[in-house]
Amino acid sequence: MPSGQTSYITSIAIALAGLIDSEFNPTEITSKTVASGVSTGIPEGVVVVRSGADDTSALPAASTDITGAPFQGIAARLTAKQPNSGTAVTDGGTVMYMAKDQFPCLRAGVIWVSSEVAVSYNDNAFARYSANGGLTQLGALRNDADTSHAAQIPNAKFIDTIAAAGLARVRIGV
Prior knowledge:
Blueprint: E1 28-34, E2 42-43, E3 47-51, E4 53-58, H1 63-67, E5 71-75, E6 88-89, E7 95-97, E8 102-115, E9 124-128, E10 141-142, E11 150-158, E12 166-172
Parallel strand pairs: 1-4
Antiparallel strand pairs: 1-8, 2-7, 3-4, 3-5, 5-8, 6-7, 8-12, 9-10, 9-11, 11-12
């Protein structure tokens, strides 16, 4: 006889990184394609930048990728996309968009992200362009420059307060 369920989740997360908060918030979403040279993939809820062709994306590698014309937006969660041979799913359930995958990119609006640090309402949003110790996810968001490892995203602010690293909403481009 098969065994029954032996454990239960008693609480669920308030959201997932990359979820767009479109209720009462105007949004601008575009479709992008992960550049063929991106070997590690692009997780949901991180900043993406132009890579070569107009609609191809990669993770930021320099501060000017974030503060200048290469900035494209934040990779949004594609709830209809199921993991397949071209898409890996991490232990936390985040879909990684792999080379040549198409994904939604939020240009303006409100989106849930996984902040690297505690943030407060109305803090400026910064995105990581180089690793610093254990903080290695390029494009990850935070509220400071992390000693020149992150750059401020133009017109982007946190709209939640969290006491430690975790999920928070960011308003961009509005």
